[in-house]
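As a point of orientation, let us examine one representative protein, giving the amino acid sequence and backbone structure tokens.
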Amino acid sequence: MQNKLKIQLKTIELFLKGSSFYRGVVLTIAAVLPLVIFSAIDLFVYAPSIAVGAFLNAPSDVPGSLRRKINGILISIVLTMLVTFIIFITKPVYVLLILAIAVLSFAISLISVYGFRASLISFSGLLAIVLALAISKPDPAAIFLHVGLMGVGGLWYLLVSLFSKWIAPKKDDDQLLSDTLALTGEYLKIRGKLLTKSNKREKYAKKALILQTQISEKHETLRELLLEGRKRSGRSYSNERRLLIFISLVDIFELALANTLDYSKIDTLFGLQKSYLTPFKDLNKALGNHLITLSELLIKKDTLPDIEAINNVATKTNVAIQDYIAEVTLPKAREGAITLRNLQDYQKQLLQEVKAIRRVLSKVKDNTKAALKTQDSKQFLTSQDYNLNILVQHFSLKSPMLRHAFRVSLAMVFGFLLGSLFDLKNAYWIVLTIVVIMRPNYGLTKERSKNRIIGTIIGAIIATTIVLITQNTIVYMVLAVISLTFAFSLIQQSYKAGAAFITLNIVFVYALIDPNAFAVIQYRVIDTVIGATIAVLANYLVFPSWEYKNLDAVIVNAITSNSNYLKATKQLYHNKEAKNLDYKISRKEAFLAMSNLNAAFQRLTQDPKSKQKESVLVYDIVTLNHTILSAVASIGSYILNHKTTSASEEFDTIIDGITDTLKHATLKLEKDKTIPFTEVRDINQAHKTLQNKYANLSEKRDIDIQAGQTEIDSNTLLDLQEAHLISNQLLWLKSLSVNLTNATSKYKSVFN
């Protein structure tokens, strides 16, 4: 019980010191301060419009480069002013108003095609429609004044945001690094469990895929924050420290991904000796927990934890290898021992990266890894194309974004008509619920609807209890401000909790205006349920966009990226110095493509059961792509971190054959007809040659052992490890690429 309380208190502390709560406080100040100041100087009549402007233009203020943040807020200000003006001038003519809602909501929803920040600007535009419906302005002068003050409010919010950035310039960076450290720690722990928990592998594998997607998304945002910041303001000790942590996190992620083993082979090798894998699992767990602790230190600014416990666990892996060899004996134990040594080698590298992060956090200067040229860093940034052609390409019913825009438009019009027809009090709440809930895919919309309703009911119950206890307006005012802060802070982390605090805020604001607060609570719940129902039904019935129809392009991109990553790894083997940057860029693209495929599969599983077409087959394709990525990362990571021999002709032949097979898999998805495929015999011969190399090294080692040379020298061990890993990974890759081609062929035949 005491331990649970400590964990909860630590969670609360991390939240209150984190960037989400900080942003919530900033937005509350931006929205509430004009009300306080203008009330004090007896000009309160102007304050609500400024507060609305601040509130409307906050959504696009998300972590990213300063330039994009400023541009995003400025575009949002112009859009919300224009939308508000159009709604106001069409209000007197009901038919024109309905037409304006339909056209504006459709056009604004399409802005989302330009990426995440654009989707938040789009959300501000849709929110402006709702608030314009809620506010009444009787004449043109009042309209112009309100719209102008909204613009002032937007600029005021931008100034407050920039000032908050000046006060705590690295708040977002530290929060994102902290989140990434924690996710990476969880990922390492899952990877450890995969070693020994053979009966739960599918469950843990699915968890690993979800974590990979989340980590890749964090990496993208961090690249923009850290590399754009470095490009803008030059190198500084503060920036370099964070960049060093980020580089170590990317390396840890690759190392963990590279260590995705052929678990069926592991089970065969260690069938009765699984206990020898336990120290390796324990070390992964210890490293993962340590990263999670370090993630908390970035927010709490506490002292570094002791690393001695990890060193103690690491020594047990050595003992495990020696005990395994002693029990099974050589040469029978050789393959298992080499597998364990490769595993140990990987974990030693993980430990070095964790220690590198510790050195940075303890402020020990070490710039060995941060020597990335500005010109090179640009190549790691994913630039968003804002060309008009992007929008034009989406004017097709095949486009999920166009279908989503139609759905949003029809749902908003229907919700407003329904509220008007039945003369519901605050009918615009129905439209508001539709705006905040509707997403392009059905599963997420349904999940948000459920959380919105539950959160609203929880908020309503709490508000009712408080209203029954007291009718003190000062209490309502304080609670309105506090609930506003927590609503903004929690809406991204927990939509259910955010919805509860939004309801509390609305009830207390209305309670200050209207003594009959219970009526407000009642209508709030009713309108939320109606709006959520319309949102879910619209996603299901109006131009539904089921995920299985959009998978082809995502799968092709993942396969192509893996193929390019494999080609870059081949070049790296030939020349580490010259091809290092090309390799890392290809690695980043492959990780992102895999993340997109994982996310697409997660969306598929959220669709109704009847629409989850061949989900088992799709999951096979996802796992095959993931395993191919892991196998390539395994080879690349080994080449980067070890002294290696020259790449052989056989290595090149096998790589070329595998990339041809992967190309064949993409052609099956891109073409309508089946393409005959014949395996190149040269590949089989090349693989036999590589296997013979390992066999010859093993035979030589057996002779040495018989001659009494039981201690293996480091060069022989490295040669054995390299020959074993390269040969086995290539054989595995070859098999995986053929399996993927067969799976894509079956997939195409099902969906033709």
